[in-house]
UniProtKB/TrEMBL annotation:
It catalyses: ATP + protein L-histidine = ADP + protein N-phospho-L-histidine. It holds the Pfam family HATPase_c. It comes from Altererythrobacter litoralis. The keyword Hydrolase does not apply. This is histidine kinase. InterPro entries: 2C_sensor_his_kinase, GAF-like_dom_sf, HATPase_C_sf, HATPase_dom, His_kinase_dom, Sig_transdc_His_kin-like_C, XrtA/PrsK.
Length: 706
């Protein structure tokens, strides 16, 4: 039944209706003076806006449920229906849409039927039950009028040509807002059997704002204006509308359940409230719900999926955030790319010296198992040549069709969360590859994703290339300093070696005591040999030559390492297949000695270091495995094999670098697999001597035949 606003709602309603009346007067004056005089709906719009202002003024002076205000409301509704009909005429379709005239006449009659109900409810002394019935009947009639007007409005706008829709846009927005608000108001009033105070209080100001939209649509210069809210405003507004709609549904359902009466009604009502509240707590804050809402907004409200200004600002902020909280540059690069597509995780791969891709950084993807190397040179070359952003799902579907999908590594193909591969191209060269995880709301990549990710990838490549250039300059400066220092050391050592050699020669001639002479000769010759070996090793850096044409037994070298380090730390040989490799046994032992020492330093005192020797028929392989603290992908990529960079206190940082250079000089390769908290695996691969001999004989035979 009707209520009289009191307290706060009365104050809010008064201010709202006064503001609405002022807005209506301003809108009517604008249409009268500035509106397009050639439009057929001009006079209907002026009348509708004026009657809306009259209704708002009466609601402010009296109350929204007074007889005068309700009469003015009925007059306003009739004028709005007539305005809607004249909009059809303005569009040139009034004659072709004669079947809608009965609906318009019916709406007039339904609205006019409010008059006897108003008289019965306001003037006659009738029982309370009849008052409630009259109130609900009036609410139902209002709902019917609102629904009919919305149907007409839909036909008007949906059936208009593109040029006409541009002129009808603001008028349609205004009328849709008025009828939707009335539909909501009277539906709640019918279900609750009383007028909702808050909706009545806010009604005047909202109607005033909507009449301003009518005024905007009446002028040809402003009819083409478009309301373009930012994506953040649209997202928050739609979120509030969804939450409000959810709460409204809860109110309607609980009111309906209350009609059951008795204990059953109360229990059902409380049970529904509890379940609805739990569902809201679970669903509303979820990332999946927010992702769905963003996708729907981008799909239906905006021309483009992305707000490029906002994306670029976020991208630059992420890349410019330094310090410990921001993570390394590589981690920030992955995060900046993942934020674009709302991906929850990602990794960064970068090409090594052999054009293979290696893991460089992870961002929120610790469980992805990435081998070393992560991908071969064929896949890296494909990304560099094509510069395509690949949809991994599409590549999976094309495996076995003799396409680029066959070059995709198996681990990436088998990772269900892997979603997109983004190459980072700098001056037509591949600087890195970002692999993105699937976003919470799964979708297919489209042209807009490809374009934006490709552009962001080029920008990220420039950041990575700049960092690589700075590191190369710093390394060159350190090498220059090292070379200057080592030049003096080599000069002094060379002099000492010459002096010792001369002393040995003189001792052979002048020593009188045979026993003394023999001991002295042994000592001096050993010292000279050691110094000469040191000079040869120091002079070998940068030449790429290590004892060519020699052979070494991996098993024998491993056993010597076990004997040497076994007294200070547990070192175990788990497998020892016969592997005679091509290379210098002394240089090989020296390289493995560095790796075993690093493994021991990284392990606990009681945690053994394992050596494993195997062969695949072409290469011999020895693995040094520890269960120590492990290393980050950033350190493996940018610090492990860099001279003067060490993770150990007081370390010179040249052991791993020397080991890799020695292995490379013998024609082998050194790979590393490491996980923080799990340990590290160094893998040394060298060509078997027998396989190398066969390959050499085959090449010689081919050259003789040719």
């Amino acid at each position: 039944m009707p209520v009289v606003e009191t307290g706060l709602f009365a104050t809010v309603g008064l201010a709202s209706n006064v503001l609405g009346a002022i807005a209506c007067i301003a809108a009517a004056l604008w249409i009268l003076r500035k509106g397009d005089r050639s439009r057929l709906d001009r006079h209907a719009a002026i009348v509708a806006v004026a009657l809306t202002g009259l209704w708002s003024g009466l609601a402010a002076a009296l109350t929204p449920v007074s007889l005068a205000a309700e009469l003015a409301e009925s007059a306003r509704n009739i004028s709005l229906i007539y305005l809607l009909f004249r909009l059809f005429a303005n569009d040139g379709r009034d004659e072709s849409l004669r079947p809608i005239r009965p609906l318009v006449i019916t709406l007039f009659l339904v609205e006019l039927s409010q008059l006897p109900l108003m008289i019965l409810s306001m003037r006659l002394a009738v029982p309370a039950e009849f008052v409630v019935l009259t109130f609900q009947s009036a609410a139902v009639l209002h709902v019917l009028v609102s629904i009919g007007a919305l149907v007409l409005l839909h036909n008007l706008y949906a059936g208009a040509a593109a040029a006409s829709q541009r002129l009808l846009r603001w008028s349609a927005i205004a009328l849709a807002g008025i009828w939707l608000y009335d539909l909501n108001l009277h539906t709640v009033a019918y279900l609750s059997s009383e007028s909702p105070e808050l909706l009545l209080a806010l009604r005047g100001s909202l109607m005033g704002l909507l009449t301003i939209a009518l005024a905007i649509g009446s002028h040809p210069a402003t009819a083409g204006l478009r309301f373009s809210p930012s994506r953040a405003v649209a997202f928050r507004s739609l979120s509030l509308l969804l939450i409000g709609g959810y709460l409204l549904v809860m109110v309607v359902v609980t009111r309906s359940l209350a009609l059951l009466g008795g204990d059953l009604g109360r229990v059902t009502q409380v049970g529904f409230l509890v379940m609805a509240s739990v569902a809201a707590i679970i669903w509303l804050p979820s990332a999946r719900a927010r992702g769905w809402l963003r996708v729907m907004l981008a799909k239906h409200l905006f021309h483009h999926r992305y707000d490029y200004r906002a994306e670029w600002l976020r991208f630059t902020e992420t890349m410019g955030r330094g310090g410990a909280s921001g993570g390394s540059l590589q981690e920030r690069a992955v995060k900046a790319m993942a934020d674009i597509t709302d991906s929850p995780a990602g990794i960064l791969l970068a090409p090594n010296e052999e054009a293979e891709l290696e893991l460089v950084a992870r961002w929120q993807w610790p469980d992805l198992d990435v081998p070393s190397p992560a991908a071969g040179y064929r896949f890296a070359g494909l990304l560099e040549r094509s510069e395509f952003v690949f949809d991994i799902d599409a590549l999976r579907a094309r495996v076995g069709t003799a396409s680029e999908a066959d070059d995709m590594p198996q681990w990436l193909r088998a990772a269900p969360a892997a979603w997109a591969v983004v190459p980072l191209i700098h001056f037509e060269r591949l600087a890195g590859v970002v692999v993105l995880a699937r976003p919470p709301l799964a979708r297919a990549l489209d042209w807009e994703d490809f374009d934006l990710l490709r552009a962001a990838g080029r920008q990220l490549a420039s950041y990575l290339a700049e960092q690589a250039g700075q590191q190369a300059l710093m390394e060159a400066a350190r090498f220059d300093e090292f070379n200057r220092r080592i030049a003096f050391v080599m000069h002094d050592i060379k002099n000492l070696a010459s002096q010792l050699t001369l002393l040995a020669r003189n001792a052979e001639k002048h020593a009188e005591n045979p026993d003394f002479r023999a001991d002295m000769l042994i000592t001096l010759r050993n010292s000279a040999d050691k110094l000469q070996t040191l000079l040869a090793r120091l002079g070998r850096y940068g030449t790429g030559k290590v004892g060519g044409g020699r052979e070494g037994n991996l098993g024998a070298v491993a056993k010597r390492l076990v004997q040497r380090f076994g007294t200070i730390h547990p070192v175990k040989l788990t497998r020892n297949e016969l592997c005679v490799v091509q290379g210098d046994a002394e240089a090989l032992e020296q390289a493995l000695q560095h790796l075993v020492q690093n493994a021991i330093d990284a392990s606990a005192s009681d945690a053994p270091v394992y050596l494993d020797i195997s062969s695949d028929g072409l290469n011999g392989r020895i693995e040094i495995v520890d269960s120590g603290s492990g290393m980050t992908p950033e350190f493996v990529r940018g610090g492990l094999f860099k001279p003067f960079v060490s993770s150990k206190d007081g370390g010179f940082g040249i052991g791993a670098f020397e080991a890799r250079e020695l292995v490379r000089a013998m024609g082998g390769r050194l790979n590393v697999e490491s996980r923080e908290g799990l340990g590290t695996r160094f893998i040394v691969s060298l060509p078997l001597a027998a396989a190398a001999d066969l390959l050499g004989q085959d090449n010689q035979f081919k050259s003789e035949v040719a």
